[in-house]
Design goal:
single chain; alpha+beta; 7-stranded mixed β-sheet; 5 helices
């Protein structure tokens, strides 16, 4: 398994989420050359960035992948917060965000064709545990 970056990850996440995220930076995790999880970052403004995550059905989140997707915004870009927008009805993704430490911040009514979006945020100090040596040692120099 290995970490990959680039437009291929953006395309894969768009397909998995059935959206068009526009431009963004993608970080993916592959097995046998196939992307099995990916994250796209967009709407960067030096203080914050939006994160979108997709996993292939049946996959479990890799600690190495989590280390990479927390390292990029917090360490490499130096943002203070990550924002995630999730369909209100997507309970599994909401639980997943909360597991990562994201906090519910609000409801965006009628923001998508299927209804409402919920906004989650993760401040750097709330996500610092993902930046500890326990997780960071999993990252090998890959240009991330």
């Amino acid at each position: 398994m290995s970490l990959v970056i680039g437009d291929g990850v953006l395309d894969w996440v768009n397909k998995q989420l059935s959206v068009n995220l526009g431009e963004g930076a993608g970080i993916g995790f592959t097995r046998n050359g196939e992307i099995i999880m990916g994250s796209v970052f967009n709407n960067y403004n030096t203080a914050s960035i939006h994160m979108h995550i997709a996993l292939k059905e049946g996959e479990r989140l890799s600690p190495t992948f989590v280390a990479a997707i927390m390292d990029y915004p917090f360490r490499q870009l130096g943002v203070k917060r990550i924002t995630g927008l999730i369909a209100e009805t997507n309970i599994a993704s909401r639980r997943f965000a909360e597991h990562l430490g994201f906090k519910f911040e609000g409801l965006l009514q009628d923001a998508i064709p299927s209804g409402n979006l919920v906004m989650y945020g993760l401040l750097k100090e709330q996500g610092d545990h993902w930046l500890t040596a326990l997780y960071q040692r999993r990252l090998k120099p890959t240009g991330l």
